[in-house]
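Researcher: Last one for today. Full complex below.
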Amino acid sequence: DTAVSQTPKYLVTQMGNDKSIKCEQNLGHDTMYWYKQDSKKFLKIMFSYNNKELIINETVPNRFSPKSPDKAHLNLHINSLELGDSAVYFCASSQGAQKANVLTFGAGSRLTVL
Amino acid sequence: AQSVTQLDSQVPVFEEAPVELRCNYSSSVSVYLFWYVQYPNQGLQLLLKYLSGSTLVKGINGFEAEFNKSQTSFHLRKPSVHISDTAEYFCAVTYNTNAGKSTFGDGTTLTVKP
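Model: Here's the assembly. Have a good evening.
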């Protein structure tokens, strides 16, 4: 069983479209994250939820809206896609939101905006 | 500002040679330190972590790292690398003031040649 699973793995779409990426974890963790990895492999945190509550919200355009229906799921919806949104988006989870927690990552969702 | 610097963007080595991947962080407050590995087209996996105690920590696949507080460094080492170690390596730091937020370095591409 995959611990952190993301769908879709690949997503190709046109500028201006709206798309969603889903993430589910079966580890029983209570904290989930979205990270963005750009073409140079730089990894930046976008959001974090702890028990469905938003706890980290970095400087991200408001076209990006996370949603956590329960602590096992964290989805990412992106409106009005732009070329610069092309990246690999990683979902991660951890037990607790403390500083020493280890992150478990999904395999990533590669978004290409044409 | 709090930051993580991986001093080498690319490290090419021959198989069975030793390797050191360097990581420095900026802060004098308590930190928690991690190394993650990303194999091609996969998510990140934890290699090792330093939370407290012994400054020399051992991880998976024969890797180890040493926490040096005075030099604010956490360099990753392996005495003899294999072709299968070819991957992207990320140093990450969670600062005591930033609950649950890990800051990642820009990554080091380790290429092991036969």
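The interface with chain A takes residues 32, 34, 36, 38, 41-46, 49, 51, 88, 90, 92, 94-96, 98-102, 104, 106-107, 109 of chain B (CB under 8 Å). The mean pLDDT of chain B is 91.
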